[in-house]
Structure formats: C-alpha cells, structure tokens
Amino acid sequence: MRIKKVVLAYSGGLDTSVAIKWLKDTYDCEVIAFCADLGQDEDIRAIKNKAVKTGASKVYVTDLREEFVRDYIFPMLRANAVYEGAYLMGTSIARPLIAKKQIEIAEKENADAVAHGATGKGNDQVRFELTYYALKPDIKVIAPWREWSFDSRESLIRYAKKHGIPVTVTKQKPYSTDKNLFHVSYEGGILEDPWAEPPEDMFTLTVSPEKAPSKPAYLEIGYKDGNPVSLNRKKLSPTSLLKSLNSIGGENGIGRLDIVENRFVGIKSRGVYETPGGTILHIAHRAIESITLDREVMHLRDSLIPKYAEFIYYGYWFSPERQVLQEFIDKSQNGVTGIVRLKLYKGNCMVVGRKSPVSLYKPDLATFEAERVYNQKDAEGFIKLNALRLKIRKIKN
C-alpha cells in the first residue's frame, strides 16, 4: 500500500522533529503534524512554526487540557490507580487521548496512516498503537524508531544538525522528558544508572524537600461522588484545581518519585517523576473514601487496583475490560462526598482531617468510652463461629 498522507503525533522534540523529514524522504508522502496541548506549558505557536519549517504540510494544535483532566485523569484517580505500588502514570494516561484525537484527524484528512515518535523499546509504542487499532482497525501505522537506521539519540542529534532541524536535547542534558498537566517524567541518558542520584537542577515542578518552606501549608479539598470539586471551599474546574494543586504541592516539595519499573515489553527502566497535584489528590481521595466507602466494596475495589493500573500502563484504555472495570469503580464512588484537610510539609502530604455529610464513621460506635449502642458480649459468638474451622483443623491433625 502506497502511503500518500500521514498524521504524525508531534511534540516538537528531537524524535518527532526528525520524523517529519524522515517520513517525507522515506515514503514520499505528505506529513500532517498533530500537537496535543495537554498543559505542557510550551510555546505552541513556536512548535507549530517549527513543524511547518521542518516540512509538515499542515499542523493541528488542539487544546485537550480540560478533557484530559476530566475524562482521563479523574477516572484514573477515582480508581486510586498506581502501577507497581508507586507510579501514578502521568505519561500512560496521556497517550490514549493523543492517539484518539490523532485518529479523528486522520479520518478528517483521509490520511492513509498515522505515526508516532515512540521507540521500539518502550511502552508508548504499545499505548499509541493499541488505541489506533481499537478505534480504526484498518489504519496503517508507521513507527519510525522500528524502521530507521538511527540507533541512538546522539545519531538523531547529528542528523538534525546536518539538516538544520533545531533540537533542545544536548549532550549536556541527554535525558528525555515528558510533561503534561499531571506530571513531568525524566528518563534515559544520565538517569540510566539506577545508583546515580538525579541532579537537583533537573526538576522543574517541585523544590527539594530541604528547600521547602519551614512552615506547613494547610489546604482543604472537597469531593463529590469521587471527584475533587473544590479547593479551600472554592469550586474550581478540573484543570484549574489540578493546576493550583501542582503549584501548592510543588512549593512544598510534594510528589517526587524515583523508581525502576517493569515495562510492558519486558525491560526494567528507571524513571524519575514529579506529580505534585496528583500525589495530593491520590492521598486525599483515599482519605475521603475511608469514611464514606463500605468495607467490602473498598476491599474488592482495592484488590482490582493492580489490574486496573496494568490496563492503563499497558495501553488498554479503550479495551472492554478497562471499561467494564471503570463502570464498577464509578458505581462505587456514589456517595464518596465530603472534605479532606491536608498538611503539606517538606515533601510530606499528611491527612489531618476528613468529614462528610454521608459519613459511615459513627463516633458512638467507635468510641473507647462508655456507650450503649454496641454490646461487647456479642463479639464472643462472632469470634467462636469464625474460629470453628480452625478448631476443627487442629483437632483433626
């Protein structure tokens, strides 16, 4: 099949900047660049101009910030999803939205193919392509990193300089970054040694805990059916709320993470992340659930968190299994409503209060003081019934 028109997921970075020229030269085709604004705080106009100068026939720039937070980040937070017990998946959750919009543009432009700048070693190639095929089964996918002769970022830098393509990656700062409203990730280059501490000047969203204010910051987050809706009693849109928490959390050194994670393709990879607002929301959500969510519903949901997180990390956002599990999670969030008070201090985010008009926490039941609601003698029969099988097993042995 001859490729006449390709829609490229374009970030303006090294890989996709080189990809525009490589696609044109290799396939003799028209290249349309698509840049998703997910809150990366970059000069979108400059990125658009760069794509045109590099050879793109057309450039789409789409503001996806509100949709990103409302329809992707918040559902993930409702599930308390963390991959391998630590990673809040800021990169993982962005890819299905980018790929979805890319397919929409491909259909609008009658493009033959879509392309991305993900490497053949990483997770993003899977996330992009599973979404492509789930939404448009007959689409042709081009993954330059699996085809071209470049074998390192240094070789890409040389190619870019040879053809006058401006790049921001240098040998002095050879690590790769990915930024959106939810986080910033850093990997590769000097971070490939898991024993080496990340350089302090690398971080962009957070101050180090040592340099955070010596006075704690208090804040209150209001929840309605599992979603954060207010900050310090002021109602905010999803995007505004997350941006505010990023700022407050960053100032107090909240949300840094240094992990070695297991990629879907089977490689262990060291990643460093900053997720200040997401870390606060994750902790706050668990706190409001602690007084509003039924015990057995909570335990059942918690047993499914690792699997749900895998679905996102592996790229199965548009799979039936993720969608079915999301329905259960969202149903469980009915009534997860109230306010959480948090204390931020030098990299620590501590819950110091929680209340709800539909709280399941009853002081007259929980108290150690005198009360007339709970008959403690009832516990004797409860314990004996639960011990029955243990007693029988011991007697038989």
What does this structure look like?
By secondary structure, the protein is α/β, with parallel strands linked by helices. The protein folds into 3 domains: 5-69 and 84-171, 3-Layer(aba) Sandwich (Rossmann fold); 179-355, Alpha-Beta Complex (Argininosuccinate synthetase, chain A, domain 2), CATH 3.90.1260.10; 365-392, no CATH class. The chain is built from 12 helices and 14 strands. The strands form 3 sheets. The protein has a 5-stranded parallel β-sheet with strand order 3-2-1-4-5, sandwiched between helices. Strands 10-9-8-13-14 form a 5-stranded antiparallel β-sheet, covered by helices on one side. The longest helix is centred in the C-terminal third of the chain and has 20 residues, at 295-314. 37% of the residues are buried.
Considering the chains and any ligands shown, give keywords for the structure.
397 residues; 5-stranded antiparallel sheet; Argininosuccinate synthetase, chain A, domain 2; 12 helices; Rossmann fold; 14 strands
Topology of helices and strands:
Elements: E1 5-9, H1 14-27, E2 30-37, H2 44-54, E3 58-63, H3 65-78, H4 95-109, E4 113-115, H5 124-135, E5 140-142, H6 153-162, E6 176-179, E7 184-187, E8 217-224, E9 227-231, E10 234-235, H7 238-251, E11 256-262, E12 268-274, H8 276-292, H9 295-314, H10 320-332, E13 338-345, E14 348-355, H11 363-366, H12 378-396
Parallel strand pairs: 1-2, 1-4, 2-3, 4-5
Antiparallel strand pairs: 6-7, 7-12, 8-9, 8-13, 9-10, 11-12, 13-14
Helix pairs in contact: 1-6, 4-5, 7-8, 9-10
